[in-house]
């Protein structure tokens, strides 16, 4: 699944990080992702360096399943999940046929506050944020299954996100939005029993919010990349302070049978083991390190922020942004890390990953399944323009099912293995 939000961690010692961590098949991942060095010399990223197959799945277009503005994509083993702010649509992964809508946005029974679903793989269901510190549960068959109440740690101290660890255990986190949060991670049962709490062991000066701005949809994607469709900017009372938060970038994800975590403004990826976190991989940002202690300092925003990670057993892709508070000098990079080779590369995000396997449009990755299948989206209008420009060059077998698309059709999902 995807990553990054705010997560607190309990450090277990530098030795675990230096040796890497074993993935689902037991191989040891190289421990350092050299992102600082990679963005100093950006290069063209090519699909053939990381994938052996690209498949394009046009999503069925009917009145019942018209995809709204700024869609996001998630994958299960059998389905494609397309979400916007107000809709959650399920499509067959093999054919692109529309299967059903899942739930609805609203404050009535069964209504969720946001259509951005968390995939609960162990139970074959979806979790949606409710309105009162709860999570609404829907099966992939579309049936509403009830609510999961998030337990509190003190008065009004509820986790801001949750993710299914196994069939009965969930994990939640507490965002340190003002620099005063004492807790970070809460393990709890579906019945609401607390199973374990990890404290916040990172420190930074407190932050007092003066004003708040929200980027939504295409506006956010244009600024931060297609995988980040919402962002909240908070200006501090001290004008030298600020903070950014990306609501649709989850802090937890599943790779195989393992659960991983990463905290915004931190450089380490952790694996959940029992009721604890073990460091696995570290982003080396070099001279552009943005320390957690400086997370609210605008000046530190010249460094590297990593708000989004797509992780698999073999590959890791991410978004890295420099000078995030400076509109004129801000730059967004796509990061690619081959775990077996221990090689980190970076390219300009706006250029995407070159599709040198089929010769089609550049790809911007947005999601990955727990089994390591990556996904992106192409808008139908971009596909139509490409075919109009390329004529006979557009006859590759992998592209034949796209030639008849109209610019008003639903987007096409790009699947990569």
Fold blueprint:
Layout: H1 14-18, E1 32-33, H2 35-40, E2 45-46, E3 54-58, E4 72-75, E5 79-83, E6 88-92, E7 98-101, E8 104-105, E9 111-112, E10 118-120, E11 125-129, E12 134-139, E13 144-149, E14 161-164, E15 169-173, E16 183-189, E17 194-199, E18 209-216, H3 217-224, E19 230-236, E20 242-245, E21 252-255, E22 258-262, E23 268-272, E24 277-283, E25 304-311, E26 315-322, E27 331-338, E28 343-348, E29 353-354, E30 365-368, E31 374-378, H4 380-390, E32 412-416
Parallel strand pairs: 1-24, 2-29, 8-9
Antiparallel strand pairs: 3-32, 4-5, 5-6, 6-7, 10-11, 11-12, 12-13, 14-15, 15-16, 16-17, 18-19, 19-20, 21-22, 22-23, 23-24, 25-26, 26-27, 27-28, 30-31, 31-32
């Amino acid at each position: 699944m995807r990553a990054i939000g705010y997560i607190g961690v309990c450090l277990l010692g530098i030795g675990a990080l230096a040796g890497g961590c074993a993935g689902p098949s037991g191989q040891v991942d190289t421990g350092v992702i050299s992102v600082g060095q990679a963005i100093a010399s950006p290069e063209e990223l090519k699909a053939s360096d990381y994938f052996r197959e690209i498949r394009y799945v046009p999503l069925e277009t009917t009145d019942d399943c018209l995809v709204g503005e700024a869609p996001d994509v998630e994958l299960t083993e059998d389905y494609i999940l397309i979400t916007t702010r107000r809709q959650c649509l399920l499509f067959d992964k093999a054919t692109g046929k529309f299967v059903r809508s899942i739930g609805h946005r609203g404050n009535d029974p069964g209504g969720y506050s946001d259509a951005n679903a968390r995939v609960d793989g162990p139970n074959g269901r979806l979790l949606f944020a409710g309105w009162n510190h709860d999570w609404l549960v829907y099966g992939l068959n579309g049936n509403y299954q009830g609510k999961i109440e998030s337990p509190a740690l003190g008065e009004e101290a509820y986790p801001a996100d949750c993710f299914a660890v196994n069939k009965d255990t969930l994990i939640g986190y507490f965002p340190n939005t003002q620099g005063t949060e004492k807790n970070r991670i809460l393990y709890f049962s579906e019945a609401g029993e607390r199973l374990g709490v990890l404290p916040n062991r990172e420190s930074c000066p407190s932050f007092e919010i003066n004003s708040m701005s929200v980027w939504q949809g295409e506006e956010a994607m244009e600024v931060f990349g297609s995988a980040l469709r919402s962002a909240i900017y908070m200006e501090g009372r001290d004008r030298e302070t600020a903070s950014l938060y990306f609501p649709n970038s989850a802090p937890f994800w599943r790779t195989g049978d393992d659960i991983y975590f990463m905290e915004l403004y931190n450089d380490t990826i952790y694996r959940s083991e029992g009721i604890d976190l073990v460091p696995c991989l570290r982003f080396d940002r070099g001279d552009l390190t943005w320390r957690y202690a400086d997370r609210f300092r605008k000046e530190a925003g010249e460094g590297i922020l990593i708000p989004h990670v797509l992780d698999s057993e073999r590959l890791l892709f991410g978004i890295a942004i420099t000078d995030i508070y400076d509109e004129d000098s801000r730059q967004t990079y796509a990061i690619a890390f081959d775990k077996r080779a221990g090689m980190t590369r970076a390219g300009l995000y706006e250029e995407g990953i070159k599709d040198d396997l089929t010769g089609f449009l550049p790809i911007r990755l947005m999601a990955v399944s727990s089994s390591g299948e990556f996904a992106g989206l192409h808008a139908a209008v971009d596909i139509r323009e490409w075919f109009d420009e390329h004529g006979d060059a557009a006859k590759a077998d992998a592209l034949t099912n796209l030639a008849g698309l109209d610019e008003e059709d639903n987007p096409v999902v790009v699947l990569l293995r």
